[in-house]
Sequence to fold (161 residues):
Amino acid sequence: MALEARICPKCGSKGLVPIEADEKCFCGGTKIVFNVTKDEYIKMSDYERNQMIEEMDIHPLISDDDAYLIYNVTHSTEIIDAMIELKQKDIIEYGLKLSQFKNQLEQKHQINQKENNQVRCPRCGSTNITAGQRGYSLLTGFVGSGSTVNRCASCGHKWKP
Fold:
């Protein structure tokens, strides 16, 4: 697969992409091809890449980090455009809105981590699990006081944690 180096003048994201890839960036901008080969691009330092961008007279309207953050929260190129406009009009308000996006993304990650840490049924993937005691304990002599067993309330599958 042939690759070429591209940069988005809107957000500044850059990298190697397949030649057949869409020219549109995630932020809605149209990527421009660097005038270097794949091997030259790989060997270039970030400083050299940034110098080349300056020589091409490309001045991104928003950083790629900010654009990724906004897009990850909203999945909207229109909101990226609105944030670019806000940045040009009121940098302080832009910073406040950006910090709200950061908080939303952190909350999203925390929720995802909690969901990933939940016990799931190995058979059906349900999180509707009950844990109980099973078996006979030699110490107490009672049924139900031995090892713990998880039971899926959805499919009935039982397993030891």
